[in-house]
Amino acid sequence: MPNCLMARILKALYFPHDTFLEANIGHFGSSVWRSILWGREVLMKGSRWCVGDGSSIRINEDHWLPRGTPFSLRSKVSLPEGVTIDKLLTEDGTWKTAEVCSWFHVDDIPWVLGITPITSRSDWFTWSLTNHGQYTVASGYKLRFTHLDIVECSNKSTLKAWWKFVWGSKLTPKMKNFIWRVFNQWLPTKVELTKQVMQSRPEQDVRPKRSWQPPPPDHVLINIDASVVQDKPGCGLSAIIRDHNGQLIVAESLFIPGMLSIQLAEAYAIRMGLLLAQKWSLKKVHVSADCLGVVSALQASPTSLSDWGMIIQEILMLQKHFTFVQFSFVHRECYAVANALAIWNRKTQSCNLWTIDLPDCAATLLLVEKPLVAV
Fold first, then answer.
1. Which fold has domain 220-369?
2. Which CDD domains would you find in this protein's record (predicted)?
3. CB of 135 closer than 8 Å to CB of 38
4. What is the pLDDT of residues 269-317, one digit of tens each?
5. Domain extent listing, the chain
């Protein structure tokens, strides 16, 4: 806790005029303080900034690109030191595309354009290894022992002294050997066996054939999907709204040119579907998607610090415009029309709205699914 007595003492001793992230060991750093700073290195490896109004994130110096550690630019932009992201945003909070495309490295451009700034709030930190964006001991352990090359002890002399203490202690040779094997991941634990692919063969998964299921009478079903190709820019979003007879009410597609995580893309698609239903004055809606993490977050209504978690909060706020809203997880084969529209949109890179005459790839599937509806 930042306001507890211990935190205030450490701040007064080691970083009275800086933040914890900027603190140094100092000339007389205790072993406790050195250990805390080593833990901070692990924390920093898995953390990054999320873009709110952009006023706190320095373009060149900070880690803010959501493409994986170290979350920094491939090459620095030719801007003065300390320039913040808000200088790259227009008055309505969108990117100044011309500046981004001309100033940034070609590998960085799609990642930048894939970020949607949330200018209604300040920038914030997120922990990238959990869905809710908050640090957990388990996720920190995972980072430490799955990325040994990037998270090492920053003080080799401390590590050497520790091993000297272990070998010189009065522990039995068997216990010393056990400690050494644990430290070097030589024990046949489940984690290590998994790494060596020493798992039993999974049972054959026999699943019944799934199909589109209609909503109750007087309700509508919103099927959404997002088409993303790993490591390639461009994302296609789709939302299709049908009644209990399988009749098309309206469908929409949207193309986003940047790089997005699948969770963020699915959250955008759900928000688009609800906004479309609101525009059509529909009051009783069922929303289905195949991203279990996003659907679970919507059902649990948690507070999330992830970038897509902020979109979840926006979606939950949209519920006030409806008399009934239900979010559910379904497998992709249960909404082939939305999937086909998302793929078509990613390939054509267009934004469209339909009430009749869907593209051929989706229109055929719409006809195929309608006979399966029980009237």
1. Nucleotidyltransferase; domain 5 (3.30.420)
2. RNase_H_like
3. no
4. 999 999 999 999 999 999 999 998 899 888 886 677 888 888 898 999 9
5. 5-127, 161-189, 220-369
